[in-house]
Amino acid sequence: MKRSRPPSRTRSRSRSRSLNVRALLALAVLAASVAIALTMPVRLGLDLRGGTQIVLETKSTETTKADREATDRTVEVLRGRIDALGVAEPTIVRSGENRVVVELPGVQDPKKAADVLGRTAQLTVHSVLGPAENPADAGEGDTEAAKDGERVLPDESGQSLRLKAATLTGQDVKGADARFDQQNGAGWTVTVDFKDSGSDRWAQVTGEAACNPAGDPKRRVAIVLDDKIISSPQVDPSVSCGAGITGGSTQITGSFDDAEARELALLIKGGALPVPVETIEQRTIGATLGDEAINAGAWAAVIGTALTALFIIVVYRLMGALATVALLCYGLISYAALAAVGATLTLPGLAGFVLAIGMAVDANVLVFERAREEQAARTRPSTRSALTAGFRSAFSAIADSNITTLIAAALLFFLASGPVKGFGVTLGIGVLASMVSALVITRVLAEFAASRPAVFRRPGITGISTTGPVRDALLRRNPFLMARPRRWLAASLIVMVVAGSGILVRGLNFGIEFTGGRLIEYSTADQVDPDRARDALADAGFPRAVVQSSGDGDLTVRTEELTDDEAATVTKAVAELGGETEKVRDELIGPSLGEELRRDALIALGLALAAQLAYLAVRFRLLFGTAAVSALAHDVVILVGVFAWLGKPIDGVFLAALLTVIGYSVNDSVVLFDRVRELLGKERKAPFARLTNDAILQTLPRTVNTGMGAVLILASLAILADDSLTDFALALLIGVGVGTYSSVFTASPLAIELHDRGTGSRTTRRKGGKGQGARRTGKTDKQVPASRTERQEAL
């Protein structure tokens, strides 16, 4: 007779197998990250390293004048091409009436980039009228246009063709993709999709060509790009006369390699420039920030990270030390991912990256606090089993908060452009890396350490055997914070109105990226160090001037709009450093964050908030989603309003900080509402206000510890970093504080009010006092939970 294995031994083996699988997964991820980090360096942005500057000049045509409006439209088309080229964090501004200054960080082939940007990309489709009678006329393009728009151009083989006036243009194109046609052996091709109107005209032009016999040049259709026939295929014999090719798409074939096919698809999809452009200058430019600013930011990041690690170790002891190791692994994984996707790292991005390390503490804190609850409830026989229960209980909160952030990151990436799109990439990478760090690496290290005999005999060193000072204080007082939720809502409304009134009273101080300004380039007798020039201009009253080295010893100064006297002051400050000074260029420049980019960013952000609301409504309840998004709007108004009152600039750095605050605020609310949902599943008949209050008290230790991790890093950046990061750190400090407040005192009271209105009655609430599940014993005068549910509420 076979003996069955004891259940405890089976569970032990199962846990060991799970631990081994997680350990192998963690080692594989870390090994891949190390390999990528050593072989693929991260691109540095214009502020850290500089890059290539290309100056383009728009040219008037017979039909379109190269004025400011046409140049602004050209800027938006160029921005789309640069995004498709994979260049992140570029700077594109209109300079004067008809010039465009493009600055590209880390471009490997500047000449190719200039060629792609400079092509007009005017796409047209023509019926072929037959061979040209006079081949010498071929290539003259526009100059040989007849009365009815006919023209003569050479095809791919050099044969001259007489073309009818264009039937379709680039305006009829919906999209284009480069594909490898392995089935028909055509190699790399470009598939062009037409809009509805273009689809009808494509059927018309191919239907007319199909009326001619096979082999006749008139059976061909010519596709022309910038006065050059790039493809002139014969219409297939299967196409009947007059019917044409329906479906609204065509395939351009030719002797393309993969790079040529992708470049052609990029140009067609990006659209034609409204006017031709000519490259008039190409040079290397220096970093917009000096070495001192970069070093100060790096030291602030190191000190802030060290303080956060020390705080976590003090609070959670051994588990905190292991979490710190996991967070270092998180940093490695994030860096490798940024390198793998070709992201460009700027100084605000670097600061945000370091801040993400502080915020990644959140998942570890969630797990450790849940493990403390299990240990204090005396339902777990060992530290390891308490940790396992903590990971299981915290998983839903970690998953929901990260999924809502990933939704926002995905929409920002796919719908926005420029720096907002880059922020979506960084945000998404940070979220995924933090989940791997907390749920895989921390768990492997924590469970391995907890299973050691030395740790088993001394549970106090783990840091989760006690409830902690914050939870102990809450247990002693057990305050009923949600007794009067309308008072909290009134207080939140007053703060929001006072802060928001700054937007109406003082207005927003938009930076150069939004408003444009003035660009002055100097040639000096003695080469001027950009760091010294920045200091001199700051002393002269221009602290926000952007100073770069340019070309062979020139100096470029970019500021907000200046009067002639202010411009003379700038010139005098530069001349004092460089001796004899000559103005090489003095032009007004347009905004780098143009109207279309701002509109795309707002649309992407609005859709991201709507998607988050929909997800929270499905995962929780609609009232929870509404409360979370309302608290988010409250945080945004307060942050923008405070900056308005302080007169701080609303620029690209502030935009990055604002997007970070949005993610932080939603994350806090999701963690709280996840606990409310859990308590609702256990005590359906309990008053909703009481359950919400219990959820606040149970998650408050996590909120405090996570907030401290972020504040330590931000305070280091605000105090130690250069002025360029001070406003960034200030915005995030305000955002973290307001986000923490709003999740407790705005989102929660609003959820209670929405719940009460939905049930049609006001819930009876009691002031203060002890929780409803607690009872006292005469001997110890200590609260003893009467059941496991009540134990959870008391903790």
Describe this structure in words.
The protein has 795 residues and is an alpha+beta fold. Helices cover 57% and strands 15% of the residues. The strands form seven sheets. Strands 5, 6, 7, 8, 11 and 12 form a six-stranded antiparallel β-sheet that branches. It has a four-stranded antiparallel β-sheet with strand order 3-4-2-14, with helices on one face. 49% of the residues are buried. Mean pLDDT is 80; it is low at 138-146 and 763-795.
Number of strands: 23
- In terms of DSSP E residues, the strand content is 15-25%
* Distance between the amino and carboxyl termini: 48 Å
Low-confidence sequence ranges:
138-146, 763-795
Q: What oligomerization state is this entry in?
A: single chain
Instruction: Decide which structural class fits the backbone.
Output: alpha+beta
Largest sheet data = 6 strands, antiparallel
Which whole number gives the mean pLDDT?
A: 80
In which range does the helix fraction lie? Answer: 55-70%
Q: Gyration radius, to the nearest Å?
A: 32 Å
Outline type: globular
- Per DSSP, the total helix count is 21
Subunit structure: Forms a complex with SecF. Part of the essential Sec protein translocation apparatus which comprises SecA, SecYEG and auxiliary proteins SecDF. Other proteins may also be involved.
Biased composition (Basic and acidic residues): 144-154, 778-795
InterPro entries: SecD, SecD/SecF_arch_bac, SecD/SecF_bac, SecD/SecF_CS, SecD_1st, SecD_SecF_C, SecD_SecF_C_bact, SecDF_P1_head
Protein name: Multifunctional fusion protein
